[in-house]
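USER: Note each token:
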Amino acid sequence: MTDRELLNLARSAAESAYAPYSRFKVGAALECAGGRVFTGCNVENSALGSTMCAERVALFKAISEGERHFSRIAIYGESEDYCMPCGACRQVLSEFSQDMEVLCAKASGGYVSYKLRSLLPHAFRLGSY
């Protein structure tokens, strides 16, 4: 799958977002090492701490289906800036792959690519203390 195809899946996933408070819809598409893709969207809640980001929705769907190895995640937000994963998402994703490629897109279609380890250097991992 090309970067653009994965980004398009993330953009499509954003359409399903439940974002009545921020009005900022985000979509994510997570590619497993074997090629399977899981999508997710942000789901907000009036108890803001209960809100779930698109990246974690996609990851949790994949985990619930038995996947544990991931190669890339594409994140799309309808904004002028690149849609970057929050700190919580960076930490949760790093549990499974610090070498995962993270594609961050903006509304114009442009995107940047990072290795997760560059977005979260010195991530906390069991046995890393």
